[in-house]
Write a structure and sequence with these properties.
Structural class: alpha+beta
Distance between the termini: 28 Å
Order of helices and strands: EHEHHEEEEEHHEHHHHEHEEEHHHHEHH
Mean pLDDT: 97
Radius of gyration: 21 Å
Largest sheet: 4 strands, antiparallel
Shape: globular
Low-confidence stretches: none
């Protein structure tokens, strides 16, 4: 099965997965050192390696080059800052006919923890008190609150992001595809859809930088069911899917950033004939990748926090109120996960 790294703990705790570390150590096809360390590390839990990573994607910004050109805004650089990003977003947000209704927005971003997290890290904050053994959220720290407020202000104060009604009327991805959105946050998974665009040119850029660089890992791994009736066949498939040959096949789909260095750094991924032109952005982000905590009920914690982020993002609560509510609502989940 293919599982996101955030979900492996729940399966491992229920003996639904077979640890693959021993098989990897014996493999004549795969070697641990051939994978990007953040990808392989994301599938380790309680001293075991549970899955072999298929990809090592990160959050990036897709941008409409035609809209940047029309607004006279320079394209994003590898070292652009939060201030640079906000300035571009303002210039790209346009009421074209003067009716006080925004026709073109600067930014589309989901108001969820997985989008906010890298900015908290960039500000020097943390999501939880102890990333290795978390016992509570840390959204109330000064650094986390600073990033949270900056994130919320994109919609509440700057108005460069669609409000709740505008987003419900047309989702940001659809808005980007139609040419009415300057920048859109997503991982590599959006590339096949973006390649259907015919009426304007687009590219990708790294996240703007805060006081330090940070991005967030998006990775899926091939895992073996604990009760598989033919584990040798399952492992043979996992070996093939994550071999150079297997990863080259998936890389050509455009959807994934290969977890094998050899494939990621080859023309199978960095194909100059295919958009985006700057796929190197994903590889440059690898040293800055971080992951959310690995724990059985992290998905439930993440969902709960995201609902509070959404309330603040759409002006239904202050950042202080949302952070406090998120901490209170998730505390029983942290306590339930405690050994």
């Amino acid at each position: 099965m293919l599982l996101n790294n955030r979900r492996i703990a729940a399966f491992a705790d229920r003996a639904a997965l077979e640890a693959v570390g021993p098989r990897l150590a014996r493999s004549q096809v795969l070697k641990a050192g051939d994978f990007y360390p953040p990808a392989l590390g994301a599938f380790r839990y309680q001293g075991e390696l549970w899955c072999i990573p298929q990809n090592v994607s990160s959050l990036v910004i897709y941008y409409n080059k035609a809209l940047f050109d029309a607004a006279g805004v320079p394209y994003p650089t590898n070292d652009w800052t939060w201030a640079d990003f906000v300035a571009a977003a303002r210039a790209l947000t346009v009421d074209k006919n003067g009716d006080s209704v925004t026709d073109q927005y600067g930014v589309g971003i989901d108001p969820i923890l997985y989008r906010l997290a890298p900015f908290i890290w960039q500000a020097g904050g943390e999501l939880v008190d102890d990333p290795a053994n978390p016992t509570r959220l840390s959204l109330d720290s000064p650094a986390a609150r600073l990033a949270f407020q900056w994130f919320v202000d994109l919609q509440v104060r700057e108005k460069v992001v669609p409000d709740a009604a505008a987003e419900a009327a047309q989702e940001s991805e659809s808005r980007f595809l139609s040419g009415a959105l300057g920048m859109y946050f997503n991982s590599r998974r959006a590339v096949p859809t973006m390649r259907t665009i015919k009426n304007f040119d687009w590219d990708v850029a790294p996240l703007p930088r805060g006081s330090q660089s940070a991005s967030i890992l998006h990775s899926d791994g091939y895992c073996m069911a604990g009760k598989s009736k033919d584990k040798e066949a399952a492992w043979k498939f996992i070996e093939y899917a994550n071999s150079v040959t297997g990863q080259e096949i998936v890389a050509r789909s455009g959807r994934t950033v290969p977890s094998l260095r050899m494939v990621a750094e080859s023309a199978s991924f960095l194909d100059p004939t295919q958009k985006p032109a700057h796929s190197q952005v994903w590889l440059d982000a690898v040293p800055t990748l971080r992951t959310v905590p690995v724990m059985s009920n992290w998905p439930a914690i993440e969902d709960t926090v995201s609902k509070e982020i959404e309330r603040a993002f759409y002006g239904q609560a202050s950042v202080a109120e949302a952070a406090a509510a998120a901490s209170e609502l998730t505390q029983p989940l942290f306590q339930k996960a405690a050994p």
